[in-house]
Automatic annotation (TrEMBL):
Alphabetized Gene3D superfamilies for the sequence: Adenoviral Proteinase, Chain A (3.40.395.10)
Highest taxon in the source lineage: Eukaryota
Domain Ubiquitin-like protease family profile, first and last residues per copy: 72-244
Name of this chain's protein: Uncharacterized protein LOC105851263
Organism in which the protein naturally occurs: Cicer arietinum (Chickpea)
Gene that this sequence comes from: LOC105851263
Keywords: Hydrolase, Protease
Length: 299
């Protein structure tokens, strides 16, 4: 799955993206204990290799800001959690949703809302509907009559990630989960019902009059279906990587999930996208620093 191709219909993205012919098998110089082990099958082009070498150099400042977008800052310590074997943190997940939202608002038709992980946390902390609207209306839930899907990432108390996708066209909620035991189903269904009810209350405010004009909205009452084709992994170790793959579907969502999970490739692809795309207000600065760092380590 590739957001650059599947969720950018209507306008062509101007983000830097290498063609297949430009892709090489760049690996990082030897002699340095990199914080991300790059393999040739990851197919990094030169700029991507430079960025990864800069971000995952062991001697660089862990608290250096590498991404800034609409007030959300991603530090090197956050990107360290994308390295193989690490637990991907909430900041990275928030940046993924922010990037996808930026693409929707700037290049697409506003067909998808990507709510950040904090949304579910705020709902379960008891935040009022008015405060939820104040926090999420402008940056995450922009009114748009083209809205087709709402993506809601959810993290359990044990750190397991799963996803609820609401289809407005089909009036169905979908549960995407890579590790769901029989004893988990009722609890997670209840969680999604509570979140659906909160969204129900939010979209009934006057702000969304044009978004849902003429459409019957009852997220809570719509049926919940399990997405097909997702393997039950028996653990949560790669649940975050699965979540990233599902978010990539954007408005090309399908409930029939196919494909193999290449986790480390997903991790490095996510890092390069978050760092090198136009939504990142620090993109140009980081590219310059990365190029100079590459020159020094190869001299």
């Amino acid at each position: 799955m590739n957001v650059d191709s599947t969720s950018s219909k209507g306008k062509k993205l101007v983000n830097r993206s290498a063609t297949d012919d430009e892709k090489q098998t760049n690996v990082l110089p030897k002699g340095i204990q990199w914080n991300f082990h790059v393999t040739s099958d990851m197919q990094l082009d030169l700029v991507e290799a430079q960025i990864i070498a800069y971000v995952y150099h062991p001697n660089k400042d862990k608290e250096e800001p590498l991404v800034s977008s609409n007030g959300i800052i991603g530090y090197r310590s956050d990107f360290d959690t994308l390295a193989p074997g690490m637990i991907i943190n909430d900041k990275i997940m928030t940046l993924i949703c922010r990037r996808s939202t930026w693409i929707q608002n700037n290049y697409n038709r506003g067909a998808v809302w990507y709510l950040p992980p904090s949304f579910a946390e705020d709902v379960f902390s008891g935040m009022s509907t008015f405060k939820l609207i104040d926090r999420y209306f402008r940056n995450w839930m922009e009114p748009n009559s083209n809205l087709k899907y709402i993506y809601v990432p959810i993290k359990t108390e044990t750190g397991h990630w799963f996803l609820m996708v609401i289809s407005l066209e089909l009036q169905i909620k979908y549960h995407l989960d890579s590790f769901c035991r029989m004893e988990d189903i009722e609890c997670r269904s209840t969680t999604m019902s509570i979140l659906s009810n909160s969204l129900n209350r939010m979209v009934r405010f006057p702000y969304y009059g044009t978004t849902f004009d003429g459409r019957s909205i009852d997220f809570l009452g719509w049926p919940l279906e399990q997405a097909k084709g997702i393997p039950n992994c028996g653990h949560s170790d790669n649940a975050a990587a699965w979540l990233i793959e599902w978010i990539d579907m954007g408005e090309c969502f399908t409930s029939n999930i196919q494909g193999e999970l290449l986790e480390n490739n997903i991790r490095i692809r996510t890092a390069t996208r978050l760092l090198l795309e136009m939504y990142n207000e620090l993109k140009t600065t980081i590219e310059v620093e990365a190029k100079e760092n590459w020159r020094l380590i190869n001299s």
